[in-house]
């Protein structure tokens, strides 16, 4: 048994100060001495820390960071060190379940898959394959997503496939496409090792990517520490370390960012050569941001003019800059518009494509990058453009199907619309994989009603009987990380392999095998009558994906299972030109915006209207980045007399999402056993609420009750973590899920729902 530190009390561990080369520090936690170690990477956030899984007698007994890994240099955070305990939980699903006479009862795989296939065939016959929808995940592997993408697009031919990545990182993809032509992060984590400044917008890195934060803490402790600008309405762990912390009102990111852009321009802190040679749209941007004087920003957002100026000084004078963006932007008002303005900051300064310069439109889930790359969401595989016939033909050739088989008559259906089609009845079979929407979707009352509808067959593929699985008609028991082999890619394009370390419990099966089984039983064929899915093992699937990715920005063609296993994490693109991967995209400032190559022809940031191919070609940016401007818009719901407070939601360091894993890891669960309602001291006084009092928060859509936690937040704003659903709660306890309150609204461009603002009222409910 080894435990280097108590990561619950000491989240980030001891400092290793540096500049230039981040020292190694190997974190380990095992409950017994392993008899062997198996190579993997952590799947409890998008950081993708390399780790080895310790195995004893066929069971996981711990993990150890991989010193050689470029992502973490050996470090692991509290979730990584503890989360694996969930694999060994007695709650694991071990057989398929089928609903009979209202009850979920055990069934064989043959019965469960037989039923799923019979239903699928019947629906296709009666209503076409458009009656089948998929709501997948950001937590599967490349091999799973690619197989799923092919069977959905070229087997079934349904346009209704998206992931919970819509809730997570759809905006990252959208913002990268808009500014640079395709998805994919321009920089690397290693840029933090030398950068002079870091801008974190709506991103609580200290809590949500603890190991990446350690990299920054170690810089802060070393020579030449970077200056930090943090934009978040709460005083988070991240904000506590800021050189300048801007705490704007919820939903006002665009106003703050336009204010910063305006100051950069006014102060002459722009690289005119870069703008002239490598961008389009500067004049329009100047016009749009012109009215956002510091005073005007202050009046609207509450950020003092002096602080905005201080932030603009840092951003304007640093010689290198890493900007990061996450849910405080993506899930807030004008998600895509705001994310693009962060890109614009680096672009105005020409700080992109070289050491110390990065824009990280962060991912959240460990493999959400791959959902987007492999086309298991509303994108086509390999960052191809659904509106470009040449891209469709490429896929049709690759899969040997007729191009018309691949849905491309309209944009692929986004998740919020998939749920809407379930609600209105046109989707009659919804297959949910590795996500728990009954806790994580907005407006839970509505989601429960949709899943309970008679006319909708609900299939849930999970490792636990989640709140969602409990409403399913068919439950498929899945193997978890550590119990299957596959590859995945973190935020900074680092690809890892995770090898199978132990057998899954009971009859649980790898997602990959479930998808293959479905494809075989459905008898999907190519246009020559051969099986559509031509692979049987994860490694063969990876080879097929490599072929699909070749020549596209996310080129995996130089990678292999052997190479990934011999090393420890390699960045894409990895091909003949970049045999060891590339730290930076766009080193020559040639962007992927050519009409023939780009992933999207763009959108109107306000309406979301898609630019036509003709309109795009008429002004082809042809390798220049786009500086797309956006003006501030008022959030869709605002406090009023009935619901006088702002509401926002997010995470705590110890839990991952709906707690199916972290809630089953003893120390993590003990560290954060209960939901809470965070409010400012002023508001607590006004409502006569003391620390720990039970508070009911109500919106127009529902209520949630939890103990009060006072301080660390702007007055007028109430925060709840969204981790806590019904699981683990007494049956008669009042609802505590933050998503009882949130609203069904989404960003016009990325279609990502708005979890970060709503209007609520509160009252103390102590007896
Ligand atoms: N411990 C832990 N780590 C995780 C996860 C987890 O569940 N737990 N999940 C992973 C996943 S999938 C994701 S997507 C990431 C999410 O990582 P983050 O985006 O860092 O997490 P959140 O807490 O959702 O939101 C970040 C911050 O947005 C702020 N915010 C709210 N409204 C606004 C606004 O209008 N403007 C601005 N500027 N900020 C606002 C909130 O105060 C909050 O501190 O974390 C990943 N890592
Ligand atoms: N209010 C509010 N709501 C939010 C957010 C917010 O900030 N505020 N954030 C949103 C974001 S960014 C995200 S990412 C979502 C996350 O929301 P969810 O995706 O619903 O969260 P998880 O709890 O991670 O659910 C993943 C499920 O997959 C299962 N699972 C894990 N590994 C595997 C596997 O290998 N195979 C299979 N088949 N199943 C597996 C787990 O047991 C779990 O039930 O929540 C969103 N909802
Ligand atoms: S930072 Fe993320 S990937 Fe790394 S150990 Fe923590 S949860 Fe795992
Ligand atoms: Mo996420």
Automatic annotation (TrEMBL):
Pfam families xrefs: Molybdop_Fe4S4, Molybdopterin, Molydop_binding
Looking up InterPro entries in the UniProt record yields: Asp_de-COase-like_dom_sf, MoPterin_dinucl-bd_dom, Mopterin_OxRdtase, Mopterin_OxRdtase_4Fe-4S_dom, Prok_molybdopt-oxidoreductase
Domain of life, per lineage: Bacteria
Is Metal-binding among the key words of this record? yes
The record's annotation in SMART domains points to:
Molybdop_Fe4S4
What's the name of the protein? Answer: Nitrate reductase
Residue ranges occupied by any 4Fe-4S Mo/W bis-MGD-type domain in the UniProt entry: 35-91
For this UniProt record, the keywords arranged alphabetically read as follows:
4Fe-4S, Iron, Iron-sulfur, Metal-binding
Q: Which residues form a coiled coil?
A: none
Q: Does the keyword Thylakoid apply?
A: no
């Amino acid at each position: 048994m080894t435990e280097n530190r108590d990561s619950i009390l000491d989240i980030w561990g001891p400092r290793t100060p540096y500049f230039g080369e981040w020292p190694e520090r190997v974190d380990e936690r095992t409950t017994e001495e392993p008899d062997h170690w198996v190579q993997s990477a952590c799947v409890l956030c998008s950081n993708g820390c390399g780790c080895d899984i310790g195995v004893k007698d066929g069971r996981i007994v711990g993990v150890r960071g991989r010193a050689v890994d470029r992502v973490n240099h050996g470090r692991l955070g509290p979730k990584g060190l503890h989360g694996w305990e969930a694999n060994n939980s007695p709650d694991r699903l071990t057989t398929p379940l089928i609903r009979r006479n209202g009850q979920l009862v055990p069934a064989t795989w043959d019965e469960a898959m037989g039923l799923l296939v019979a239903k699928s065939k019947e629906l296709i016959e009666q209503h076409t394959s458009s009656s089948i929808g998929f709501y997948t995940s950001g937590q599967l592997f490349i091999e799973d997503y690619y197989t799923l993408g092919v069977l959905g697009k070229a087997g079934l031919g349904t346009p209704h496939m998206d992931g919970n990545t819509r809730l997570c990182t759809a905006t990252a993809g959208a913002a990268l496409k808009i500014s640079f032509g395709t998805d994919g992060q321009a920089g690397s984590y290693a840029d933090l090792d030398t950068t002079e400044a870091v801008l974190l917008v709506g991103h609580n890195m200290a809590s949500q990517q603890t190991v990446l934060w350690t990299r920054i803490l170690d810089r802060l402790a070393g020579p030449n520490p970077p200056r930090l600008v943090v934009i978040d309405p709460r005083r988070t762990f991240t904000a506590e370390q800021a050189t300048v912390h801007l705490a704007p009102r919820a939903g006002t990111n665009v106003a703050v960012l336009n204010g910063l852009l305006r100051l950069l321009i006014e102060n002459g802190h722009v690289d005119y050569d870069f703008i002239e040679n490598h961008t389009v749209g500067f004049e329009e941007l100047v016009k749009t941001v012109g009215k956002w004087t510091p005073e005007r920003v202050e009046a609207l957002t509450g950020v003092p003019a002096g602080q905005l100026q201080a932030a603009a000084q840092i951003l304007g004078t640093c010689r290198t800059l890493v900007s990061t963006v996450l849910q405080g932007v993506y899930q807030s008002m004008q998600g895509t518009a705001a994310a693009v303005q962060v890109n614009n900051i680096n672009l105005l300064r020409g700080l992109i494509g070289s050491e110390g310069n990065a824009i990280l439109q962060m991912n959240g889930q460990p493999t959400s990058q791959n959902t987007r790359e492999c086309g298991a969401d509303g994108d086509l595989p390999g960052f191809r453009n659904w509106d470009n016939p040449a891209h469709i033909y490429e896929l049709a050739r690759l899969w040997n199907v007729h191009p018309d088989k691949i849905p491309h008559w309209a944009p692929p259906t986004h998740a919020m619309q998939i749920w809407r089609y379930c609600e209105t009845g046109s989707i009659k079979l919804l297959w949910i994989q590795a996500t728990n929407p009954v806790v994580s979707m907005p407006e839970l009352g509505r989601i429960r009603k949709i899943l309970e509808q008679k006319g909708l067959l609900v299939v849930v593929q999970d490792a636990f009987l989640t709140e969602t699985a409990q409403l399913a008609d068919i439950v498929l028991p899945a193997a978890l990380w550590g119990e299957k082999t596959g590859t995945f890619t973190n935020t900074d394009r680092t690809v890892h392999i995770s090898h199978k370390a132990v057998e899954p419990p009971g009859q649980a099966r790898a997602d990959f095998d479930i998808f293959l089984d479905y494809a075989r039983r459905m008898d999907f064929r190519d246009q020559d009558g051969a099986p559509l899915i031509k692979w049987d093992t994860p490694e063969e699937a990876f080879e097929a994906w490599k072929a699909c990715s070749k020549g596209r920005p996310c080129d995996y063609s130089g990678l292999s299972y052997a190479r990934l296993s011999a090393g420890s994490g390699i960045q894409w693109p990895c091909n003949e030109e970049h045999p060891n991967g590339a730290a930076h995209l766009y080193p020559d400032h040639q962007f992927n915006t050519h009409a023939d190559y780009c992933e999207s022809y763009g959108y109107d940031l306000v309406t979301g209207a898609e630019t036509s191919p003709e309109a795009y070609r008429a002004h082809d940016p042809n390798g220049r980045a786009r500086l797309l401007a956006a003006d501030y818009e008022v959030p869709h719901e605002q406090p009023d007399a009935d619901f006088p407070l702002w509401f926002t939601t997010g995470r705590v360091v110890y839990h991952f999402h709906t707690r199916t894993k972290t809630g089953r890891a003893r120390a993590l669960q003990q560290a954060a056993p209960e939901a809470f309602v965070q409010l400012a001291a002023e508001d607590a006084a006004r409502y006569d609420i003391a620390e720990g009092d039970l508070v009911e928060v109500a919106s127009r859509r529902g209520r949630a009750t939890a103990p009060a936690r006072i301080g660390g937040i702007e007055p007028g704003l109430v925060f709840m973590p969204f981790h806590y659903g019904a699981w683990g709660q007494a049956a008669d306890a009042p609802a505590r899920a933050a998503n009882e309150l949130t609203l069904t609204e989404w960003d016009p461009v990325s279609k990502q729902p708005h979890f970060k603002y709503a209007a609520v009222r509160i009252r103390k409910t102590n007896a």
